[in-house]
Amino acid sequence: MTFNWYVPFLTALLPLVVGFIWYNPKTFGTAWMKAADMTEEKAKGANMALVFGLTYLFSLFFCMVLMPSVIHQLHLYSLFADTPGIREEGSETQMIFKGLMDKFGGNFRTFKHGAFHGVLVGLFAGLPIIGINALFERRGFKYIAINVGFWIVSAALMGGVLCACL
Questions:
Q1: Phi, psi angles (nearest 5°) of residue 103
Q2: How many distinct structural domains can be found in the chain?
Q3: Domain region containing 46
Q4: CA-CA distances (angstroms) from residue 143 to 36, 59, 76, 79, 140?
Q5: In a domain, 55, yes or no
Q6: Residue 157 in contact with residue 118, Cβ under 8 Å?
Q7: pLDDT tens for the 166 residues of the chain, in order
Q8: Residue 77 lies in a domain
Q9: Residue 20 within a domain
Q10: Residue 90 within a domain
Q11: What is the pTM of this model?
């Protein structure tokens, strides 16, 4: 399995792209602004370079969390990480690891599989986090649905790309 180091950096752009569509006034933008108590004046007062820069950085963090959820083979690496002989070329441990990766390294490495697990992460991680914050902020169902929907779609696309291309 080859690690394409650039894939997470490109994948982290997806929430920005999805966000431009999702929060556009022609889709959910107007409803989100109302549910979030956001005004045009508040939006114009933001440092957008900082907002987009931090969004990209946080999306890159999210990629790191998403990878082990969508790529099952990463768990095999963690199982062998401190095993004696894993770094010794030709050792029994390395041969066992290589044999497992040769046999199972390509299993479940499709966009569809990654997208499925991305949806699960968006639903079972995004919903509780956003939902709990929204409850304490006294936000309504529409606020939760719009934001969780965004993260489910973003996580599905990110998971699909990471699983198929990494």
A1: -80, -40
A2: 1
A3: 7-72+108-165
A4: 6, 20, 39, 41, 6
A5: yes
A6: yes
A7: 567 899 999 999 999 999 999 999 999 999 999 999 999 899 888 999 999 999 999 999 999 999 999 999 998 888 998 899 988 999 999 999 999 999 999 999 999 999 999 999 999 999 999 999 999 999 999 999 999 999 999 999 999 999 999 8
A8: no
A9: yes
A10: no
A11: 0.91
